[in-house]
Amino acid sequence: MSIVYWSSRQRGDIWQAWLAANAPDLPFYQWPETGDPCEVRYLVTWEIPEDLHKRFPNLAVIFSVGAGADQFMTAQIPDGVTVVRMIEPGLVDDMAAYITFSVVSLHRGIPRYLHQQQQQVWQKQDVPPASRCRVGLLGLGNLGQASARVLMSLGYSCSGWSRTPKSIAGMTSYVGDNQLAEFLKACDILVCLLPLTDRTRGILNRQLFDQLPHGAGLVHAGRGQHLDHQALIDALESGKISHAVVDVTDPEPLPEGHPFWTQANLWLTPHIASETHAESSVSVLLDNIRRHQQGKAMNGVVDLNRGY
């Protein structure tokens, strides 16, 4: 049995060398090389090749190279093939660091001070204590929970919203559509870390922004298709949202001339909030493959009917 990898060549080279040393029984091929297609049991990728069921007839598992698997369409997955997302410490730690940096920057008024620097203005601004800054996390998976724990350790008041009930020490949790409005009205800074599903697509829209307190901040590190670009621009220009930090967009990269490039009260980063670390992620991959070979439960299995 063998592995086919279809993603960053740089990371693939590291994985190939590591697996050759630590799992010589598992041939590893980088796309478009595949070896004998009938021997391929494991595909590691961010996107699904066409005619997958014909290309690799004995495929057993598709591993996402990232924390999400919502980029895969259910119709693309052959019957009997399991989908697994990446659960890797580096991904979680990086996201928690990005969210913390963004929330602290918005709370402490750093965007305003950067603007003052450009204007050669030296002026202090009043900042409420962290305990009075209410941070709401849309999405309470591994990334959301890790980010909340760091923020609460710094004294921030955190709440969270999810589709299914979650119980996290020190947080107020809201569940489902009926509690979304109550959650939003208590968010001085809203953080989006939702997976992409039919129900979350376009969720960051005018109607949602209107339910936030006036002048709220936004940190968006979920999926590009969550965000209505024009609705955010309108909310920023009206002051409904004071400042936004956006790491994911649709499309990526943004085209030349897109308003986000020049929006004064928006920070834009090129989808760098959280990325897999080559050395630790390949170890996680091998652990899951060994679990599969031994008939044990793998970590990060996705329920294709519900998301994750």
Class computed from helices, strands and strand pairing = alpha/beta
Helical fraction: 25-40%
Distance between the termini: 28 Å
User: Secondary-structure element sequence?
Assistant: EHEEHEEHHEHEEHEHEHEEH
Percentage of residues in DSSP E strands = 15-25%
Sheet having the most strands? 7 strands, parallel
Helix count from the secondary structure assignment: 9
Radius of gyration: 21 Å
The beta-strand count equals 12
How do the strands line up in the largest sheet? 8-7-6-9-10-11-12
Residue-averaged pLDDT, rounded? 93
Based on CA inertia axes, which overall geometry fits?
Answer: elongated
- Which consecutive residue ranges, at least 5 long each, have pLDDT under 50? none
Q: Which helices and strands occur, and which strands form pairs?
A:
Layout: E1 2-6, H1 9-22, E2 28-30, E3 40-45, H2 52-55, E4 61-64, E5 82-84, H3 89-107, H4 110-118, E6 134-138, H5 142-153, E7 157-162, E8 172-175, H6 180-184, E9 189-192, H7 206-210, E10 216-220, H8 229-238, E11 241-246, E12 266-268, H9 278-293
Parallel strand pairs: 1-2, 1-3, 3-4, 4-5, 6-7, 6-9, 7-8, 9-10, 10-11, 11-12
Notes on the protein architecture:
- With 308 residues, the chain is an alpha/beta fold.
- The chain has helices spanning 9-22, 52-55, 89-107, 110-118, 142-153, 180-184, 206-210, 229-238, 278-293; strands at 2-6, 28-30, 40-45, 61-64, 82-84, 134-138, 157-162, 172-175, 189-192, 216-220, 241-246, 266-268.
- The protein contains nine helices and twelve strands.
- The strands form two sheets. The chain has a seven-stranded parallel sheet with strand order 8-7-6-9-10-11-12. The chain has a five-stranded parallel sheet with strand order 2-1-3-4-5, covered by helices on one side.
- Helix 1 (9-22) packs across helix 9 (278-293) and helix 3 crosses helix 5.
- The mean pLDDT is 93.
